[in-house]
Amino acid sequence: xxxxxxxxxxxxxxxxxxxxxxxxxxxxxxxxxxxxxxxxxxxxxxxxxxxxxxxxxxxxxxxxxx
Length: 66
Hints:
By secondary structure, the chain is mainly alpha-helical. The chain has helices at about 10-20, 30-60. The chain has a domain at about 30-55. The protein is built from 2 helices and no strands. The N and C termini lie far apart (about 50 Å).
């Protein structure tokens, strides 16, 4: 397996990626569950980032209002 990056710049994503490090300790049959878990966590993180961006955009003045 290739090496995982040490940091992504987002602590939430770093924690998810770090969890992937346990793959080497698990039988191959258990890998799908780990990938599914990571995917779900990444989706939730992305949704949170998008929601925060939407909230910031809603409070920001329109480009023509500056």
